[in-house]
Amino acid sequence: MDIALLDELPPPLPAEQIIALNRPKADLHSRRSCEWNGWSFEVPPGVFLPGATSRMIYQRLLDGAIEVRGRRYAAMGVGLGVEAVVAGLRGAREIYAIDVHPDSVAAATRHYERLVGPKEGTAFVPVVADVFDGFPDGRQVDVVTFNPPAVSQTVSDDPDVVRNVCLGAPLLATFFTQLAERDLLAPGAEVFVIVSNTADLRAIVGHAVRQGFVPEVRMRHDWNDGVLTYLFRFQRGSVA
Ligand SMILES: C[S@@+](CC[C@H](N)C(=O)[O-])C[C@H]1O[C@@H](n2cnc3c(N)ncnc32)[C@H](O)[C@@H]1O
Q1: CA–centroid distance, residue 239 to ligand 1 (Å)
Q2: pLDDT of 75-110, one tens digit each?
Q3: Is-above-0.85 flag for pTM?
Q4: What distance in angstroms lies between residue 158's CA and the mean position of ligand 1's atoms?
Q5: Exposure winner among 114, 122, 165, 233, fewest CB in 10 A?
């Protein structure tokens, strides 16, 4: 186990600070819109409105720092679907747009069809699933991204806010356990997870390590308000 990395990770911020930083916006149940990279997206009620953390993943998919070209890609918790659109344009071989929220999967599908459409060598597969429970059997992927609702404090009693923001470390425990036990990763696969110290980073990374994953910090961003965001890359350790 990479004890040194675990010890270096900051503990969660104080509960009151996490709650103040994640006050739910009043408009989640309304129709919103957003723009990124010159594209406009309509955001249906209940679907997560992408923020700066989301865009850190989108940008890396776009510039190839997270390489999906020619690879089988699972966008876990795809929400609005921007990751899937970028992966389509970059030429991923298979794109699994996965979310537990059917309206999010439907929105992702609409945006994919509008901005990418049918493309030779690229298959788009919308999947409504609770993490990988609902993902087709027997498939493997080469790359996974997840911007999870990992905030460690319950910031609302609205189930849609909870689903988008604050399911906490147990969701990531399920994610890594399913990846490992269902043998969902092809040899050499990369799993990218972006989380901050509004989450329990040590619990999340510790669980992944116990499931046999080797973590690496790919980026650490200081927002100058106490929040530190980490982009981790996990790979399966070699089986001795
Ligand atoms: C923080 S949002 C990220 C959305 C999008 N990927 C982005 O970065 O803009 C988290 C997403 O995870 C989804 N989610 C929550 N619980 C889930 C679960 N058990 N299985 C799959 N997706 C889940 C939510 O519906 C939401 O779309």
Answers
A1: 31
A2: 999 999 999 999 999 999 999 999 999 999 999 999
A3: yes
A4: 15
A5: 114
